[in-house]
Amino acid sequence: MKLLIVESPSKAKTIEKYLDNKYTVRASVGHIRDLPKSNKKAVDIKNGFTPTYEISPLKKKVVDDLREIAKRADEVVLATDLDREGEAIAWHLSEALNLKKPKRIVFNEITESAIKEALKHPREVDMNLKNAQEARRVLDRLFGYDLSGLIWKKVRYGLSAGRVQSPALRIIMEREREIRAFIPEKFYILSALLKKGKDEMLFTCDKEIWDKKEAEDIFEKAKSGDWSVLSVKETEASRVARAPFTTSTMQQVASTRLGFAPSRTMGVAQKLYEKGFITYMRTDSTNLSKDAQMQMVKYVEDNLGKEYAQVNVYAKKSKNAQEAHEAIRPTNPGRASMGTTEDEKKLYKLIWERAIASQMAPAKILRTKVSANIKGETIPNFSINGSRILFPGWLAVDTRSRGEDVEVPKLSEKDALALVKADMEEKETTPPGRYTEAGLIKELEKRDIGRPSTYASIIKTIVDRGYVVKEGRTLIPTDTGDVVSTFIENNFGNYISDSFTSEMEGNLDEIALGKATYVKTLSDFYGPFTKALKEKDSIEKITNLGDAPAEFPCPICGKAMVYKLSKNGKFMSCSDFPTCVGARTEEGKELEPPKEIGEICPDCGEKHGGKLVLREGRFGMFVSCSRYPKCKFIKEDEAEVAKRKTGVKCTECKDGEMVERKGRFGLFYSCSNYPNCKHAIKTKPTGNMCPMCGKLMMEGTKTIPERCSDKKCPNHRPDKLAK
Fold first, then answer.
1. How many CB atoms lie within 10 A of CB 638?
2. Which of 3.40.50.300, 3.40.50.80, 3.40.50.12780, 2.70.20.10 is the CATH number of 186-240+363-428?
3. Deepest of 9, 46, 344, 433, by most Cβ within 10 A of its Cβ?
4. Which pLDDT band holds residue 53 (cuts at 50, 70, 90)?
5. 198-202, 247-251, 636-640: lowest mean pLDDT where?
6. Higher pLDDT, 696 or 541
7. Does an H or E element contain 89, and which?
8. Nearest to 593 by CA among 615, 578, 574, 609
9. What is the pLDDT of residue 635?
10. Pairing of strands 75-78, 363-374
11. Measured torsion, CA atoms of residues 287, 292, 297, 303, in degrees rounded to the nearest 10
12. Cα–Cα dist 172/488, whole Å
């Protein structure tokens, strides 16, 4: 028996049907091992930054099953993805399953021919690629843990920093500071609606006018003068087809055209790849294989005509692009529509259009510019621009890139034009726009920060951390993001600079190519980094973020107030805190002080006189000690809990009751005895017990009304169970 291991079950399912029962295909379901949560155990710095891995708790059964099958197998083939992450998974599988000499294969697309061809050319696990991934993982852990620890001490508990997330946040904050510092300026747009025969045309002044008096002078002359055509210029131009998608350009276009978040795009692309519809979706190469090019050219010739087809080769965008990889393309160019969900169909169409269009002739466009003026030419010229497509070329396929034809009536030099009306509009300059997800990805790629596989996770991380909020597609930094970024910029600016981040990415690429070593790369970073951390350990803790306006005195004692940072953002606090607990919102609205509930704090009441008070937090009312933050005793408000009870007993502790709670990812349900009992489920419990495992059943979807709350239970997905 031969065993072939991939990452995903759907990928396994697709591949198995191509191998004629010659291989048993199984999935690792992603990574099977990772660094432990405790940083002390994770990396042995003194012994060459040696990482310690442990099997993820949720993967123990998967690993046990794979071990049993591997023992019986005559041959084991590791067919994980072709990038560094895939290579690392292959190595972890080899180590965890105690494989002696496993074969390693890679392929760019999940098609029968690609799989069978890959099996003809097995190799060993590429240790350079594995080392590069390991270096990134260890580097990110050391940077994040050590710097986050300092931020906890100097700013606020629970905040975090990251080697790539922090530079991304810095870029967003740089733009935000530009917006805050922006001073609008007035300018004037002058236009003249001119007519020849029945055709009316809107001409606009060619010169930018910033002076009101100058604008008024031009306006008055434009109203009274006799207009005529000065010149008519027609030029032919070519629009060359765009390169097929890389990961970054796919994410950008999917965001602007489909409204997909980068994480959504990558999730859909992953499914399309696993189903064999597109090539591997994590790539920074614009290369296409010769076979793929010829297939695309043939499709164009057969469906549009030979004049539309053209073989195009595109220069790599990234200096570190791996030319052995391909751009993202359909595996079968003849299939214009594929996918089982609406998201899959939309993204596939986008990928197909871009790939086919990349092997097509340029579009031919006729651009027309007509300039006009009053007799005497005492004012700047006014002009109108038009364009029309002479030959669509690649725009015949990528129609959404076409735009609208703007036809200009037939005019000749010296033609008289009648003035219908002149107009003068006062406007103000606007600040630069905030980054969208697509815009940030473009900027990260431009600055060589991160890699195609990391863009989506970078954005997701800064949003999940509460450093940035999304309004539509726009990324807006929060007060917390502002404080954290400012602290890191002021104290560790060189470690989140473009040059440092780009250089580190280059070093990781060097490891992948075998031109640099794991230990030296990490040593060169960690020595200076730990020195910088120690130097900053003596800086004072940031307790205040500046003085609040004098018009907002403390509502309790009347003293001046200062800005402070909470989990919910900035607020005003009495400068005499903790003696006085007066507080206001950032806008100045008075906040109700905590109310005593008539109970002594069980932790410090006897020694220090702490009293329990009712406070309002991010997720509702709760009870804490009046001496907070010196005493951190906390419990939920019983009245608040009573409102959210479901009437369903907790099956873990047998004592508590499942209650509705709010978390950073939305609603969930957990035991009322928290934190003593940490039993939690995703959706509302129904009160029924699972017939297969005895755990709580919970609400499902329209098609699956009820399912088991235990992810490990087959009844968690009764739709698949039925099949």
1. 11
2. 2.70.20.10
3. 344
4. very high
5. 636-640
6. 696
7. helix 84-96
8. 615
9. 77
10. unpaired
11. -130
12. 14
Phi-psi region of 220 (alpha: psi -120 to 50; beta: other; left: phi over 0): alpha
First to last CA, the chain: 27
Q: How far apart are CA 490 and CA 352, in angstroms?
A: 46
Look up residue 521 and give its two tokens: 């790369």
- How far apart are the C-alpha atoms of 417 and 486, rounded to whole Å? 58
Q: What is the dihedral angle through the alpha carbons of 61, 65, 66, 67, rounded to the nearest 10 degrees? A: 100
Rg of the chain over Cα atoms, rounded to whole angstroms, equals 32
Structure tokens at 169: 């946040």
Reduce the secondary structure of 547-612 to three states and give it as a string. Answer: ECCCCCCCCCCCCCEEEEEECCEEEEEECCCCCCCCEEECCCCEECCCEEEEEECCCCHHHHCCEE
Q: Are 436 and 474 in contact (CB under 8 A)?
A: yes
Q: Confidence band (pLDDT; 50, 70, 90) for 545?
A: confident
Q: Which two tokens stand for residue 401?
A: 């890139």
Torsion of CA 326, 332, 333, 336, to 10 degrees: -120
Task: Tell me what percent of the residues of the chain surpass a pLDDT of 70.
Answer: 97
356 close to 333: Cβ distance less than 8 angstroms: yes
The pLDDT of residue 317 is above 70: no
Residue 184 has pLDDT above 60, yes or no: yes
Look at the alpha carbons of 562, 563, 566, 570 in this order and tell me if their dihedral is positive or negative: positive
Superfamily (CATH) of domain 135-181+433-536: Topoisomerase I, domain 2 (1.10.460.10)
pLDDT of residue 323: 45
Instruction: Give CA–CA dist 465/158, Å, rounded.
Output: 9
At residue 714, the pLDDT reads 86
CATH classification number, 2-125, choose in 2.60.40.10, 3.40.50.2300, 3.40.50.140, 1.25.40.340: 3.40.50.140
674-695: pLDDT as tens digits: 878 889 998 999 999 998 888 9
Q: How many CA atoms lie within 13 A of 90 on its CB side?
A: 29
Which CATH architecture group holds 247-357? Orthogonal Bundle (1.10)
Angle at 91 between CA 87 and CA 97, to 5 degrees: 140
Minimal CA–CA distance to 6: which of 111, 122, 89? 89
- Structural domain spans, the chain: 2-125, 135-181+433-536, 186-240+363-428, 247-357, 561-639, 645-722
Q: What is the dihedral of CA 90, 96, 101, 104, to 10 degrees?
A: -10
Burial grade of 596 (CB within 10 A; 0-12, 13-18, 19 or more) = exposed
In CATH terms, 561-639 corresponds, of 1.20.1050, 1.10.10, 3.30.750, 3.30.65, to 3.30.65
By annotation, the residues acting in catalysis are 280
The tens digit of pLDDT for each residue in 615-655 reads 776 556 788 898 876 788 887 667 777 778 888 999 888 88
